[in-house]
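Example record for the data management plan.
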Amino acid sequence: MIIKSADFVISNQEVSKCPKTDLPEYAFIGRSNVGKSSLINMLTNRKKLAKTSSTPGKTQLINHYLINEEWYLVDLPGYGFAKISKSAREKWGELIHQYLMKRKNLRCTFILIDARIEPQKIDLEFMEWLGINQLPFVIVFTKSDKLNKTELINNIERYKSTLLEKWTELPQFIVSSSITSQGRDAIYDLITDTNNLDNLNK
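Corresponding structural encoding:
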């Protein structure tokens, strides 16, 4: 896939105000400080399309970006240890759940996981919720450049083992780095294949 255009469309706090479109959407979500904005900028070849910040939890809205005038990249609010009130966290959670459940053109959710850390309860519970609701997702391990090869392999294997405690089949996963662009082609290929399948079924 060649990214010819990547345009910001809208930010909002209500699913009803998302673009009225039948173009496929691909959502990106993860704990605060997982490197989501950097990954989005790497994927779109735009240094400042998604605003990065040293303050976790900066993304508080649903952000839509139109890619190649063919599909939407959707940047969802992060979750985790962001310094926000409990009521705000609950509001974000409800917003995320409504979007994931109601957007008919959502094709896949990419869950970003920091490759350096051990499995976190909040991520595992979110994946379980997606599985129960039969919402397709792919795990994207970020910041792989921060680890050597052995550390990376061991961490991913640990994550797989944890998932297999509850899952009979492992979700698909992609290893990525916004610094080296690792994983970009794998994400592109998944989106391209899904879009092509959509076109065949029309």
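Summary line stored alongside the record: The beta strands are 6-12, 25-30, 62-67, 71-75, 106-114, 137-142, 173-175.
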